[in-house]
Structure formats: C-alpha cells, structure tokens
Amino acid sequence: MTGRGDVLCSHCLLPVGLRALRRMVNGEGRAFCCHGCCIAFLVKSGRSEEWEAAWLLIRLGVGGFLSMNIMLFSLLLYAGAFTGANARMLPWIDLLLWSLATPAVVILGGPFLRETLVDAAERRLAASALIVLGVGAAYVYSVIAAIEHSTHVYFDTAAMVLMLFTVGRYLEAAGRAGAARDLEPLLAAESECATVVEGDVERRRPAREIDAGMLVRVRPGERIAVDGVIVEGCSHVDEAVITGESRHVTKGVDAAVIAGSINLDGPLLIRSTATGTATRWAQICRSVRDALIRRTPTQRIADRVVGVSVPLVLVLGALTVLYWARYLPPDRALLAGLAVLVVACPCAVGLAAPLATALGIGLLARRGCLVREPGALEALARTRLLAIDKTGTLTSGSPRVVAIHSEGVSTDEVLARAAGLERHSEHGLARAIILAAKRRGLTPILAHDVRIVPGRGIRGRAAGQAVAAGNAALVRDLGWTVAPALERRGCSLEADGYSVIYLGWNGRICAVLSLEDSPLPEARWTIRSLRNRGLDVVLLTGDLPAAAQRLAASVGIEHAHAGLCPQAKRAALDRQRQSYGVVAMVGDGLNDGPVLAQADVGIAVGCATDLARQAASIVLPPAGLSLLPWVVDVARAVRATIRTNLMWAFGYNLVALSLAALGLLQPVLAAAVMAGSSLLVVTNSLRLRRLSDRAPSPGRSEVEETTPVQDPHAFGARRVIALPMLAALVLLPGGRVAALADDRGAQIAAACAACHRVDGNDRGIPSIVGQDEQSLAGALRAFKSGGRSSQIMQVMSRSLTDEEIGVIAHYLATWSKEAKRP
Amino acid sequence: MIHYLVLFAAGFVGSFHCVGMCGGFACALGRDPRGPAATALRHLICNAGRLTTYCFLGALAGALGEVICTPQGMAVPLLGGSVGIAQQVLALVAGLLMVCMGLQFFGLLRAFRRLAIGFGASTLAMSLRGLLGARGAAAALAFGVFNGFLPCPLVYAFTAEAASTAGALPGVLTMASFGLGTFPAMLMMGGVGNLLAPAWRQRGVWLAGSCILLLGLVTLGRAVLPLAAHAAHGSQWGHAG
Questions:
Q1: Nearest 10 degrees: CA dihedral of A715, A718, A721, A723?
Q2: Weakest mean pLDDT among A39-43, A190-194, A336-340, B192-196
Q3: Which of A71, A313, A279 has the alpha carbon at shortest distance from A186?
Q4: pLDDT at B227
Q5: Is A389 known to be catalytic?
Q6: Burial of A304 (0-12, 13-18, 19+ CB in 10 A)
Q7: Among B17, B126, B202, which would you mutate to test the A interface (most chain A Cβ atoms within 10 Å of its Cβ)?
Q8: Backbone phi, psi, residue A186, to 5°
C-alpha cells in the first residue's frame, strides 16, 4: 500500500481510485471507493453501537422520510388535489415542501457535495459535480419560485434525484460486493486475526504478527490463519482456497494444516510452523491484490472516456437549457438541462471493466487458479494458439518403466534385483523401478555394500554377486560384457528419447530397462477440449524429437517442436506470434520462466514455487491442467462481459442523453434510469458467476465438461438471509405456527456468520427477542438427531459455545445439501 | 368513508400477523430510559416513519394506476380506450393479487411467497440492525422508514388495492387507513408480543389471511360485477341493434 491508487475498497474490493473515502469502522480505518460502498459496508458490518454506522443509516432514513413526504405532496399536487377550492392552500404547500426539501437536500446531497469539493480542490471535475450542479439549480430555482408564489416548484425533483442516486449507489455497491464474494477469502489473509494461546491467556492477534512455534486456537467455522501442525483436536477442513479442490479432509493430531483453509466442525489447537506472512495464502493474497489494483488496457480507455465526458456533459447541459429556453418557460428548460446532467453520469462506464475482471479473478481463484495480471484474461480470450511445454506440464514429471529387454533372465528377476539395488538411491528413475517392482508384487533381492557412482548409476552386492545398474557410461567403466543385441537395443532406445538403465550382475549386463515420463491422464481430454474451443495447440519442448512426437501423438497434438533450448522456445513463440497475433504459453513455471514471461499470456501449471518470483501471469494449481479449458472459458466470458457492459453503459447513456436533451425525460426518471444503468452493468457482470459450476475438478480427467461440481461455498446465503422473513409466515407441519420461527433463521444466520459458512461475511440478523435456553437446547437436540427442528429457536443474548456452533454448522451443511437437491 | 374504515379494520386485523416479524423489531426498539412517555414517543415516531413509507407507496401506486387508466397526456392510452374498463381491469389484477397474498397466509402458493418475501429482505434486515442500538428520535424515524419497506404480503396487498383506486389521493388514503390500522397492535407490541401464545398468533395470521382474502374478493367483485353489467349492457345493445 504505497500510493493512494493501490488500495482496495473495503466493501467491493475494487481499487478505490484517486478519491478514497476514509472512515473509521469498528475501530479500524477503512477506505471506500464511493458513498454507496461506505453505506453498504456499514450496513453489512458496522456494529450498531458504533455511532458512525448508525449515523449514515439514520441520515438515509431521515432523508428518505423527507423526500417521500415531498414526493407524496408533489404527487397530490400533480394529481390536481389542490385545485379549485383548495387552490388557496398552494402557497402553504410550497412552503411545506421547501421546509422539507432543505434538510433533505443537505442530508442527502452532503456526500455528493463533499466529493465535488474534494475534486475541485484537486482541479478535477467528476460525475458528482453533475449531480450537485443539477440538483442545486433545481433547488435554487424552486426557492425563488416559492418566494415569488410562482406556479411550479421542483423541490421533489431535487430531493428525489438525490434519493435515487443514493439508493442507486447503495444497490450498486451491494451488487459489487456480491461480485467480490469469491475474492474475500483470498484477500482475508492480510486482515485475518487468530486466537493465540499464551499460557492460560487467549488473545486475538493479527495473523501477520504470528511467529513459528506459537499456539493458535481455531474454533469450528473459523479460517485457519497460519500454516501449522495440529496439537489437539480433530476436525474436517476445507482447503479449497489453496488447492482449488473443494472436498473436506479429515485432520487429526500431528496432521499439517495450511493457512487459508476452513476448520469445519471441531475446535483445533495448532502449533504454527511459519510466520503469518510467509504462508502461501498470504502470498496468494498479495498476488491477488496486485492483480486487482492493476488496470487493464480496456479499463484505461474507459477511464479516459469518463474523464473527458464530464466537461462535455456540462456543456451539453448548458446548451440544452439555452436551446429550450427559447421555446419553453425557463423552468421547463432548466428541467431539461437537469435531466441531461443527471442522465449522463458515466458511473456505469467506469464500472464495466473492473467489475467483470474482478469477478473473473475471483471465480478462477476459487478453484486455485491465480491471475496475477488482469490484462491476461482479456489476452487469453483473444488468443488462438496455445503453446504447451512437455515435461511437468503434459507429463507427470516422474518417469515410469515402459519396457524391459532382457537376455537369458526373467523380467521379474531383473526387476527384483534392480529394485533391491535402487532402494538405496534417491534418483527419480530409481523410484520408478521400485514402483514397477511393487506393482508386480515382487520381493526385492536386497543389495548391500551399495555405492552410488555419481552421473553413472549405482553398484553393490546381492546374493554374493556384484550387481550394477546405470547408464552406458557405467557399463563402459565396469567393462562388463554386453550382448550385442542388447547393446543395439539400448542405443536405439536412447536415440528415441527414452531413459535407459542397464542392469547386470556377475560381470554381465543382463537387461535394458527403458523408462519414460508418462503423459498425465487428463492431458488428452484437456487438449481435446482446448481444440473444441477453436484453439490450436503446439508442443514446444527441449526433449528429443522422437519422444516429443510420441507424446504429441498420445495426447492428440498435431504439431510438435522438439529439441528447443529456452532461447529457441522464445524464438519459436515469436514466429507463431506473427501468424496468430496473440499467443499463450503453458509451462510448469520452473524451467519455462523466461518463455512464459515472453508470451502474451504465460500460464504456469502445478507450480508450488514462490509466487512473487513467478513469471507467468496465470498460475494454475498443482494437477490443474484439466482446468485449462475452463480458464479459457472464463477469460472469454470476462471479455464478452466487458464488451456487453461497455455496450450497455454507452448505449444506455447515449439513448437516455438524447431523450433528455430532447426534453422527453423527466429528471426524476433520468435519475432512476441512471441508477438502472449501473445496476444493469452489475447484474450483467454477475452472470459470470454461473461459470463456476462448469469447472471440472482438477485431477479428474474424464469428467464431462458439463459436470457440475459440488461446492460448499455456494451455500445458499441469500436463502439463509431470506429465511428469517420467510419463516415469519411459515406454517410448520402439525398446524403449529412458528410466529417467532424467524428467530431460528436469525440464529442460523448468526451461526453462519460465526462460522463463516456464509461467504465469510458477518451477516447476523438483529437479536430480536430475549434469551431462551430451553428452546435452543431443544433445537440442538433435534439437529443432533438428524431431524428437522420445528422448535422455536430464539436468539441468545450470550454467544454460542463451540459445540453448539459445531452442531448448527453440521446441521447447516446437511440442510444446504438438501436444499440444493431439486 | 366507509371504505377507508373497512381498510382501517383490515389493517387492524391484519396487524396480528405483524407480531411475527415487525413486532419483533418493534420489541427490539426497546424502551427509552427516560420513562414511559419517551418510550411511547419513540414508538410513535417509528410508526410515523412506517406510515410515511406506506403513504408514499400508496401515492406511487395510485399515481401509477391513474397513469394506466387515464389516456390524458399520453399519446396512446396504456389500457383500452374506456377509463371505466381500464380501472376495472386494474381492480381485477389487484383483486387476484390480494387473493394470492391471502392464500399464502394459509401456507398455499409457496412459490409466490418466495417471490413476494425473498426479495431484498436481507439488506433491509441488516439496515434495521444497524439502527436498533442507536438512540434518538432520528434513529427511530429512520428505523420506521426502513421497516415500512420490509417485504410483507400485507403491504403488497394493500398497495395493489391502492393502485386499483387509480388516483394519488385515494391511494394515499388507502395506505394511510391501512397503516393507521396497524398502529394499535404495533404500538402495544412490547407488551402483547411476548404474552401472545403461539396458538393465538397462528389464529392472528389466519385472521389476517382471511381478511386479505375477503378484501381481495371484494375488489374482484368490484372489477367483475360492473364488467358483467357492462357486458350485459353491451349485449342488450346488441339485441336492440
């Protein structure tokens, strides 16, 4: 956090831009990108005892009260309720409207005025200036009209435009926060607190202050804030944020836990093994934050358009007033100008790109795919060629024995002897041989006096005979005899790109083992899916041509370029770029760093190395190759969404602007239209979230593309929140009405908030009624026995215990599963 | 006048349903430490905020009804040419809506209920939470304003009724009568809410449902009977011609 521009809004997680609103919330300094986010954040997480949180809402409520009254009387006025005999009341009505409008304009217009003044101090003109100017003009005109007892006052317009804009901004902010829901767990690392146990004292401390060796208590439902080992307790944890795999893993004492995973159902005591800032989660957090702050090329263009448009709109508004003043009474001309100012607010245009990009980043992050450069998504959507590296990307990186050629001995004996000898080696090839022997159920013939010959192989003694295994160089060194057929076979295998191990005993080479790096099981499916998406795939590898061709054929790639050193790979990539324009490179992120950096989009697969030193702009999780087609889908969807967003926003603004300039749009309607345009962009962007269901889970190659993936995070948050309201009316089976059953919903929501089941937000509902231990106990009993509780569960004034939350969390998990079933 | 008295009565009866949700909120608004008078004032202010919201909704709905029904000022009337028929169609829609709302009090039409109540509830509930703890008249007023927007089938039903009156003023008066009808129950909620046994609350909900149902049928009748008369009239003309 160095400059002002690289801070994220506390509410919607988009960059705050140059005009950050700073507020103290719950004792912490927060930055917001707009007034709407500020209100929405305070509504969501402000504690009611905090004066500021309540104050904003009070202002909104009182402003609403005033403007609704103004609108009420104005509607009656327009409807002709004060004509004829009642006409003498008109001046009094005007006075009443004036007295109502003045506080309303001050209360609701304050934030807009402040924004404008801050901008003006920095010699800038922003969208809020349009509102201030328009509303100010309407108000001043109305005051003069009221004093002069003229027929028309427009206090209603002034108040309602402000009200609609405030509500519009609030709704937009709420929508944006919905979009950021996936990002929240990833960005939580910086703000997360953990309960540190020091002797008998438990203290909440920020995760970044935790050192290795500290004891941390994690309650069910909490996020584990540090890497560590369990000292006490047993629970299921969800590691989806880190591994991308959303399944529940059971962890007991001595099991390692990763920071960022969620403790689902049992209390845990953890000894941390690393400092809070060194965890992968913290790295991911920094990386995601950086990606969100950077602006994509599209966004830069949109921002520039917004910057230019405000003065233009001001001029257009003035022209509209001047033009209409010639044909209409001055008040009507003023209204037309006001409508122009209000309707041309370019909020939606500025929102189009960052919102879709942030959604895409969040969507991918939920499956463990990290986007480090937001522009990469747009570039990936444009790319037509995917260059893929072989080793570690399409292959597992660990070789396996593919053939054994022996002379005069059985294959089993060869493997048994080789395995007995190679047990002493750490080499990758040795592991492959041991694995092969194990698969066949062979007992290794144990060797002793083993000596490793560096760069050659290994030798020792078994069953009274000298045994050796290694490459051709070792054979030459030993001077053992090799049957010519075996030697020829070895040479040809080596020429074909296999790794070859000669094995011999008693002074004679008896067998040649050929090993090869095996393609990943999901490689073929992935390549096919990519090609189905109209992408060309080429293989770029440093391996021998024969090996490359073999692999290409087995996974379904047509073009393979083999024998390339890193420089040659870059040159090959450049050549492809000339014919394809935008190229993406997929590699393992270790050896391919320079090539990945060179490509328009570098994608690293299965990379566990330090993210900060990572050259790729997109990083897939380990075993995440099968996610690649989905990543392409998301990137394309993001790009399409940005385009439609911009189209909508511009189109909407242009159409509404023309209508307003022609005097066909009432200012109040214009304000509603403007709020609508922002909401439209938000809603359109939120459609992106549907893509999350289409992601294949990593490591499962044969999954159909359309297989929906179970996701515990997709827990029906909205349903839970709606429940209190819903339940207030539900007639429960048995004819008993749970008139206070909404409290059960409230309790559930409170429990959700406590255990972060609902997207980590504090979505508590007010404590409505007093405590009732008995009904809680009854409900818990019912939950435990697996039944549905029709008990009335009241909100407790005390906080729930771990066990109680555990029971409720478990109930919720089952309940949400059942709710999902059609 | 009698019409508005009926609406007042309907609001009063219907407000027994409010015990469930709004009543809880009213209880939570709590007592003012400065004594019973201050507490009463606090609740009164809160309810005034609620009433304003209702009246506003009524005015909007009434004005909308008026726009739909009167061709005046528009190039093309939205519904038919005859003002009478347009208003009857509006009453028909409103009546059907009210019947649906009424039925869901009896646990019927579940999908409809979700549509009616699920929307926007969470945000509002959270705004209300933010205001519960705050002291002062302004907070109570703001609380009332938000409370009025809480999704509630009762409010929807009466808003539909207000729209069917096809005028801003009758719309306001409709909602005002209903809102005033809910006053007694809501004001007494602090005491009554906790005393009322679940069985009684259930009867209250049924009573509210029956009331809405009845009102919906009356509105439907208002729509259908003149229509039928009109049709009969038309056919007479047809015979005559």
A1: -90
A2: B192-196
A3: A279
A4: 58
A5: yes
A6: exposed
A7: B126
A8: -75, -30
Q: Are A235 and A265 in contact (CB under 8 A)?
A: yes
User: Other CB atoms closer than 10 Å to residue A561's CB: what's the count?
Assistant: 19
Longest pairwise C-alpha distance within chain B: 77
In Å, how far is A50's CA from the nearest CA of chain B?
A: 8
Please give, rounded to a whole number of angstroms, the shortest distance from the CA of A81 to a CA of chain B.
7
Report which of A711, A242, A238 is spatially closest to residue A251, judged by C-alpha positions.
A238
Contact yes or no for B198 and A57 at CB 8 A? no
CB atoms inside a 10 Å sphere around CB A202: 12
User: Measured between alpha carbons, how far is A342 from A660 in angstroms, rounded to an integer?
Assistant: 9
> Is B29 part of the contact surface with chain A (CB cutoff 8 Å)?
no
Q: What is the pLDDT of residues B104-162, one digit of tens each?
A: 767 666 555 555 554 455 556 666 666 766 677 788 888 888 878 877 777 878 888 88
- A728 contacts B131? CB cut-off 8 A: no
Whole-number Å distance between alpha carbons of A613 and B94: 65
In chain B the beta strands, taken as DSSP E runs, fall at none
User: Which residues have C-beta within 8 Å of that of residue A406, sequence separation ≥ 6?
Assistant: A414, A510, A511, A512
Which residue of A47, A72, A747 to mutate against B (max B Cβ within 10 Å)?
Answer: A72
Name chain B contacts of A48, Cβ cutoff 8 Å. Answer: 129-134
Tens digit of each residue's pLDDT (9 = 90 or more) over A329-348:
877 888 888 888 888 777 77
Active-site hit among A389, A517, A588, A743? A389
Q: How many CA atoms lie within 13 A of A471 on its CB side?
A: 12
Beta bridge partners of A203: A196
Task: Give me Rg for the CA atoms of chain B.
Answer: 20
Chain A neighbours among B 60-99 (CB < 8 Å)? 60, 62-63, 66
Q: Which of A325, A308, A318 is nearest to A340 (CA)?
A: A318
- For residue range A530-541, what is the model confidence (pLDDT) as tens digits? 888 888 899 888
Q: Which of B104, B145, B169 to mutate to test the interface with A (most CBs of A within 10 A)?
A: B145
Bridge-partner residues for A737, per DSSP?
A: A731
* CA distances from residue A138 to A143, A331, B44 in whole angstroms, order as listed: 9, 9, 33
Q: Could you give the C-alpha distances from A98 to A15, A66, A171, A329, B38, in angstroms and in order?
A: 39, 11, 28, 21, 29
- Contact (CB<8Å) A731/B145: no
pLDDT in tens, B174-183: 888 888 888 7
DSSP string, A153-203: --HHHHHHHHHHHHHHHHHHHHHHHHHGGGTHHHHGGGT-EEEEEETTEEE
Question: What is the rounded distance in angstroms from the CA atom of residue B48 to the CA atom of residue B46?
Answer: 5
CB nearest A739 (choices: B106, B172, B201): B201
Q: How far apart are CA B87 and CA B79, in angstroms?
A: 9
Task: State the pairing for strand pair A201-206/A193-198.
Answer: antiparallel
Highest mean pLDDT of the ranges A637-651, A692-706, B75-89: A637-651
In this prediction, residue A308 carries a pLDDT of 82
Give the pLDDT of residue A126.
Answer: 76
CA gap B108, B102 in Å, rounded: 9
Q: Do B133 and A742 touch (CB under 8 A)?
A: no
Cβ under 8 Å to A: B residues 189-218: 194, 196, 198-199, 201-202, 204-205
| Helix, strand, coil % in chain B, rounded to nearest 5 | 80, 0, 20
